[in-house]
Amino acid sequence: MNPLWPIRILFLALCVTGGYAVSQAPEYVSEPHNAIFGMMIGFGFGGLLIAVDEMLKSFSLRAFSAITFGLLLGTAVAMLIDHSGLFQNADEQQHLLIRLGLFLGFGYIGMVLAMRSNKEDFSLIIPYVRFSPQNKPDNLILLDTSVIIDGRIADLIEAKFIEGLVVVPRFVLLELQQIADSTDDVKRARGRRGFEVLNRLQHNTKIEVRIHDGDFPEEKGVDAKLVRLARNLNAKLYTNDFNLAKVAGLQSVACLNLHEIGHHGQEHIGQAVNAQVLSTVQTGAGVLVFAEVKSENGQ
Fold first, then answer.
1. Which of 117, 133, 187, 202 is the most exposed place for a label (fewest CB within 10 A)?
2. 33 dihedral zone (left: phi>0; alpha: psi -120 to 50; beta)
């Protein structure tokens, strides 16, 4: 049962009670069946609001804000045209119809344009100011599904090789759940491993993990959503997907392919070098050692 229904039932009961109370006013009390009519009107009013609430259940706060802004912008344009003097020769009745058409028309156009726009479009009209708490890290780590399943990101974060606030989008969790629910044994195992990695990150007291509810319904692919979200949050995207990394780079989004980290010391394989150990991490497969090369001659 939807947890909102008890509240809706209580609200409906209050509306019926309110309708009955109004029907008992001195000017209505002498009317026949006034109590029944009052309760029916209260029930109808409450039911109408509940129906509107049900229709708007997928309506987000962002959409409401966009519609409000679009309505205000359309109203402002309609007012400018109305006060421009173009219709000063119209009689009172014609002017009323013209004004009604202007406000309805431009209000609708403003709302539609606002709903189809994103944050970058709004920034062309008004300055976009990003407010953030002072204790919020500047480095946002945005994870995709492949890097979560891989698991090495948890080792790198525990070793403080990567620091910041970890952001996991809700649509990535849904994709991970679909993999974990797959009928294919390999995919199912990979999905469950991804959830184990997330659980490990959430229990790491050194970092903070946040689930981000932002979504872009107009984007059909998860990769496109990730690039949009990384650009909007000014976050660095971590992935194991070569194509996603290339697409992000073409759109000037900071992105790191985790496979590239393993290539930093590849040129020193087989050589004796002087290195400084930065940290070590104990894993089930052994010990991960993170070091910085100081010289290449072993002295």
1. 133
2. left
In a domain, 210, yes or no: yes
The pLDDT, as a whole number, for residue 256 is 86
- Residue 168: name the closest of 252, 229, 251, 244 by CA: 229
Question: Would you tell me how many other CB atoms lie within 10 Å of the CB of residue 43?
Answer: 15
Secondary structure of residue 139 in the 3-state scheme: coil
- The CA radius of gyration of the chain, in Å to the nearest whole number, is 30
Distance separating alpha carbons of residues 145 and 217, to the nearest angstrom = 18
Is residue 189 very low, low, confident or very high in pLDDT (cuts 50, 70, 90)?
very high
Say how far apart CA 166 and CA 147 lie, in whole Å: 12
Could you tell me if 39 and 23 are in contact, meaning their C-beta atoms sit under 8 angstroms apart? yes
Residue 7, pLDDT score: 84
Query: Mapping DSSP to helix (H, G, I), strand (E, B) and coil, where does residue 213 land?
Result: coil
Write down which residue in 57, 74, 91 finishes a domain.
57
Distances (CA, A) of 9 to 5, 6, 57, 151, 179: 6, 5, 17, 47, 39
Which strand ranges, in their side-by-side order, compose the sheet holding 208-212? Answer: 208-212, 165-169, 140-143, 236-239, 255-257
**Are 43 and 19 contacting, i.e. CB atoms less than 8 angstroms apart?**
yes
Assigned domain for 134 exists? no
Whether 40 and 146 map to the same domain: the answer is: no
The mean pLDDT of 111-123, rounded to a whole number, is 64
Residues 193-206: what's their mean pLDDT?
Answer: 88
> Is 43 in the same domain as 119?
no
Domain of residue 191, residue span: 140-263
CA distance 265 to 125: 48
